[in-house]
Amino acid sequence: TAVLAFLAESGFTFEEREFTLDEALDAEEAFITSATSLVMPVTTIDGHSIHNGAPGPATVRLREIYLDHARKGGVLG
Fold first, then answer.
1. What residues make up the domain containing 39?
2. Whole-prediction pTM value?
3. Percentage of the chain with pLDDT > 70?
4. For residue 76, what is the DSSP state?
5. Which of 11, 42, 43, 51 sits a CA distance of 20 to 30 A from 19?
6. Pairing state between β 48-49 and 31-34
7. Percent of the chain, pLDDT > 90?
8. Contacts of 23 (CB under 8 A, 6+ apart)
């Protein structure tokens, strides 16, 4: 997907795998992706804040990269 390519091109270290709810709740950052929302931070899960309850720097940066690519007329998908 586009997000995985942007992660790799930007030098982010990541892994794509299944995770438990406990892992998600303990995460420093979380985000979701879709064709319409692109990259959106997840700040709470079932009323529990992720890290400090604010979008993390990596999520913000990835969203900026994605939006910049879209503004330049890049193919998203």
1. 2-71
2. 0.79
3. 95
4. P
5. 11
6. unpaired
7. 53
8. none
- Residues 6 or more apart whose Cβ sits within 8 Å of residue 51: 27, 28, 29
Is residue 31 situated within a structural domain?
Answer: yes
Residue 77 inside a domain? The answer is: no
Specify the number of domains making up the chain: 1
8 Å CB contact between 40 and 31: yes
> Do residues 32 and 42 lie in contact, with contact meaning Cβ atoms separated by under 8 Å?
yes
Specify the CATH number for the domain of residue 21. Answer: 3.20.10.10
Cα of first residue to Cα of last residue in the chain, in angstroms, is: 6
Q: What integer pLDDT is reported at residue 27 of this predicted model?
A: 94
Domain membership of residue 76 (yes or no) is: no
- Angle, vertex CA 45, rays to CA 77 and CA 69, nearest 5: 25
Residue 4 has pLDDT above 90, yes or no: no
